[in-house]
Amino acid sequence: MLTKWCRAFPGLPEQVAEARHFVAALLQREQGGGVDDAVLVVGELAANAVRHTLSGAVGGWFLVVVDFGADRVRVEVVDQGGDRTPQMCDVTSQEEGGRGLLLVAACAKDWGVKAYPQGCAVWADLAREGV
Questions:
Q1: 3-class SS at 28?
Q2: Spacing of C-alpha 64 from chain mean position
Q3: Number of H-type helices and E-type strands within the chain
Q4: pLDDT tens digits, residue range 21-36?
Q5: How confident is the model at residue 2, as a pLDDT?
Q6: Which of 59, 64, 105, 121 fits a 20 to 30 Å CA distance from 38?
Q7: Cα–Cα nearest to 110, from 55, 63, 52, 71
């Protein structure tokens, strides 16, 4: 049985929903449920990739990786890089955006950023259900 899956998506806003469907289908198949947090996490990370990195430029792409560990599921989105390193923002209640990584941190056991020469990856470890 494969424990790691990945799929590349065009860097278009409508592909964020496709990424959510991809992750939901994998988790439903592998553990029979527990998809809500993973779907929220991949949606936030994919939206950030499309909105804030070169992945959202013409011809851009982002990669979604789902890795099933013994007691966790790692959801990772690899993008084509941008001007800034992803980090949590200090937001006020009046601001409309900037809460994506706060939501990711709230859902995840742990999360982080890996920088690459041509982009970066943001990952989140979620508790694996049913193990």
A1: helix
A2: 7
A3: 3, 5
A4: 999 999 988 876 668 8
A5: 60
A6: 59
A7: 71
Phi and psi at 61, nearest 5°, equal -150, 165
Distance CA 36, CA 64 (A): 16
Contacts of 114 (CB under 8 A, 6+ apart): 120, 121, 122, 123
HSE (side-chain half, CA atoms, 13 Å) at 30: 25
Rg of the chain (C-alpha set)? 14
pLDDT, tens digit, 9 for 90 and up, residues 59-104: 999 999 999 988 899 999 999 998 776 555 555 555 555 566 778 8
Exposed/middle/buried for residue 53 (C-beta within 10 Å: 0-12, 13-18, 19+) = buried
pLDDT average, residue stretch 44-55:
94
